[in-house]
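Hi R.,

As promised on Friday, here is the backbone we talked about, encoded as structure tokens. Could you run it through your design pipeline when you get a chance and send me back a sequence?
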């Protein structure tokens, strides 16, 4: 009889804990709205500066707290699959196979394109070369000697820049000879600023909006003009050249929201895609999806 009473107590206790847990989960979702509450966003490390700016303004305007988790592209995507995070910022869209995974989970990701940035090549200030041909970079990655390239420096073996360049060179992994990788764009810029002959591969946002402590390193590198695989002209990754599709290494940026409810993911994506968010993009040197409108007030001067 005592054992039965203990069993009955255990069942009621377990059900009570489960009920409380469910209520807490539902309560946390209710507390989070599109403009209020707290959440985490995983962001491709190459895009971190512009997203940090967006979050700072968003938090200043609304009762929201967003924790940014900066990771490589591979880790950022895996955060969605492993359900570590429900919101991610990437330099590519989800693939059909990736979308199928969410479809099987009965989740319909909300995908918001919000800007176009670029992969940039940098060299030490002491280098006389300020031009580089994309064909030469690809040849070097394929193991062919290129006179003016001593080495290529990437941020991370799992980064979006590595994936992007591997795709252009038809490679599955970066070669071991002459190609080096660190962990972050910060380390790449610092290394190139201190070593002649090395070509760094970074997200252009790290150059247009360097952190104060990085300014001295950015000042000691050249952003190279690139000749694409077609044509003979060289172009810098400027806002205008990206807009006119002249720069050959431009890429679109996306916010992937897999929350499945009306939470901060929806609110933040709307903010970034809206007028204020697009102005932040424009000011950063990247290309916004839509150019923010400018208002002029015309007044009449009645003085004769």
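Update: got your reply. Pasting your designed sequence below so it's all in one thread:
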């Amino acid at each position: 009889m005592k054992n039965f009473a203990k069993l009955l107590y255990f069942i009621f206790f377990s059900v009570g804990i489960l009920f409380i847990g469910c209520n807490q989960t539902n309560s946390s979702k209710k507390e989070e709205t599109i403009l209020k509450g707290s959440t985490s966003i995983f962001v491709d490390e190459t895009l971190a500066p512009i997203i940090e700016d967006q979050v700072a303004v968003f938090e200043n305007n609304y009762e929201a707290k967003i924790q940014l988790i900066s990771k490589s592209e591979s880790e950022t995507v895996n955060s969605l699959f492993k359900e570590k995070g429900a919101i991610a910022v990437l330099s590519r869209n989800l693939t059909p196979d990736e979308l199928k995974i969410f479809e099987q989970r009965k989740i319909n990701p909300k995908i918001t394109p919000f800007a176009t940035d670029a992969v940039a090549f940098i060299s030490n200030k002491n280098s006389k070369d300020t031009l580089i041909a994309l064909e030469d970079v690809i040849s070097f990655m394929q193991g062919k000697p290129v006179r003016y390239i001593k080495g290529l420096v990437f941020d991370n073996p799992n980064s979006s820049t590595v994936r992007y360049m591997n795709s252009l060179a038809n490679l599955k992994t970066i070669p071991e000879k002459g190609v080096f990788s660190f962990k972050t764009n910060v380390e790449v810029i610092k290394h190139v600023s201190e070593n002649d002959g090395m070509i760094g591969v970074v997200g252009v946002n790290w150059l247009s909006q360097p952190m104060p402590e990085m300014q001295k390193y950015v000042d000691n590198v050249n952003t190279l003009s690139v000749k694409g695989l077609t044509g003979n002209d060289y172009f810098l990754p400027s806002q205008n050249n990206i807009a006119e599709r002249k720069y050959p290494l431009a890429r679109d940026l996306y916010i992937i929201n897999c929350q499945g409810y009306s939470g901060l993911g929806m609110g933040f994506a709307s903010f970034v895609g809206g007028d204020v968010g697009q102005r932040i993009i424009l000011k950063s040197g990247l290309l916004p999806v839509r150019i923010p409108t400018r208002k002029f007030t015309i007044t009449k001067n009645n003085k004769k």
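One thing I noticed while checking it: Residues 1-28 have pLDDT under 50 and may be disordered.

Thanks again,
M.
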